[in-house]
Structure formats: C-alpha cells, structure tokens
Task: structure prediction
Amino acid sequence: MKNLKKLLPVVISIMIALLFLAGCGQKEAVKGDTIRISIVQPVSHTSLDQIRDTIIYELDRSGRNIEIVTKNANGDTSSLQTILQNEKSAGADIVVPIATPTAQSAKNVFEGSSIPIIFAAVSDPLAAGLTGEGCENITGVSDNIPPEEIVKLISHLQPDYKMIGFLYTSSETNSVSTVNDAKAYCDANGIAYKEASIASLTELQAAVNTLISAGVDVLYTGTDNNIASAMPTYTDIAYAKGIPIYCGADSMVSDGGFATTGVDYVQLGKQVAEMILKIMDGAKPASLPYETLHEYAQYVNLQAAGLLGITFSDEALEGFAVLVEADGTSHFGQ
Result:
C-alpha cells in the first residue's frame, strides 16, 4: 500500500503529461483540417455567377486546404433558409452569401453563432440589417453605386431626356434602397421620374409598358437580381418601344442593357476572397469593416444603341469600355 501511495503522484504526472501531449496534437490536427467554405446565391445570372467563379478561382490559387461548396436557390428565395440551415448542419466554417436576400437569411440561420459570414454584393448593408449590434460575425463587400452617377450618365449620353422610369423588385431590399436614393437625388435636382415595382417576373412586361405609357424616355434598374436574370425579356419589351435601359452592373449591359456606371464584379469577387483569406489567417469579422468598390467603370452596349437608333461621337464615348460591339461581339470578362 505504501509503495502504491509513492507511485500515485508519478502516475498522475504521467497522465497529465499524456493529456497535455494529446491536447497539443489535437490543436495541431484542427489547425491543419480542411476549411469548408459555403457559397450560396439566390439565382443564376451573369453578375452573381461571376462573383462566385472569381471567389472560387482566387481561393483555389491561394493553395489553402479548402473545400468549397456552392449552392443555388434557383430563384426560389424561400428555400435560402433551408439551404443555409443544411450548410450549418454540414459544418460550414465560413459562409459566403451572395446578394442581399441570401445575406439576410444567413444572418437569421447563424444567429448566435461565431461562424464568419462574408457577404458579397449587398447594395445597402445598413438598410439590410447586416451591420451594427448582433452582426459581429458579419462583414463583406458592397456593390453600392451612388444613384447620382447613373443619372449623370443618362444626362451625358442623352442630354435631351425628359423623364426617368425606375423599375425594381419590391422584395429586394437592395433594389428598393437604390431607387429611394435615386428618387431623392432627382427630387433635389428637379428631375422628373416615374416608378414601378414588380413582385415577380410575370409582372415585368406590364410594369415596363406602364412606365412607357407614362411618358418615360429612359429606364433605370439598379443591381436587381430578379430583373437581372431576365434581361433578354426586359430589353425586348423596352427596345421595341425605343426606350434604352440603364443598369447598375456591367453584366446587365453585357446581357443587353444600354449603358452603366457600374460594378466590376470580378474586382468585387477578388475583394471577397481577400477577406476570406484574412479570416482564415485569424482575423475576426468585427475587425474588418465592410468594403465598397473604390472605382466605378463606364460601359456601353453599341449593339443596343444600334437597335435604338442612337449614335455617339468618339468624344461622347471617351472613357467608356465597349462591352458589346455593334455587330454583337462581346468583350465581357476580357
């Protein structure tokens, strides 16, 4: 018994040492584990797909031990909650929601969690409730474009216009916010406008015709994901009546829109990827304020101009990138 008592402290010391070593080994294993990054988007259209593909490319070339999972609600925003809940259950380490409705759903699903949420292409993070108290695990990159930039663009390319028609999806916070800012600018500068909103794409044709009947000379739709997914339909309706469509993104111009002072979504995707890598290196979302793009680009679609019978001087197009040539040749993504 005495010998056992003498050995007991030694046994305990050995056990503590083994536990310590096991703990060290476990930390090292966790450090080397594959990081699951879940990228979720509400619908497929050129802008959102470009963001997704750029993020994937930048993360792949980083050489990190990453598993990238992509999910798409395919236009059914009501399924975003389920998709994100499934990713939470699957053990997502970092969540990348693309567009405002996805980011809002991610906030709800991961509420109370420390899982980082790095949003992409949220036009107004404040209005969407993605900053401030309760959002310590959320940051990202906004695709906000000051609406006065688009109005200035319209004045530059069509100085004789009389009235702008704003068209947007009523359920998209980002789109509503953009239109509200644009209306405020127009009110302050004596610019006439009409507005129309749609709840679904089945209302698109009627809404466009309502605006045209009201006497608008031009149409403006910002970074509206719903309408961006239906640009061919939108342009067919408007161009048949000779009304140009100004957009909030270069991809929307590539898909038929007339012109934009807009977002370079490749650059946006790169900034999101940089944030993700910082998070992987130990940064906390709360220490990384959300970013906006530092530069805007001006794009024009000369094929659309030809359909509308609009011509420009070389001087008028100075500083513009031609996304689509008059013969239909596209330079998008080049």
Observations:
- Residues 242 and 295 are 31 Å apart (CA to CA).
- The chain has two domains: 35-143+265-292, 147-262+296-324.
- The domain at 147-262+296-324 is CATH 3.40.50.2300 (Rossmann fold).
- The longest strand covers residues 35-41.
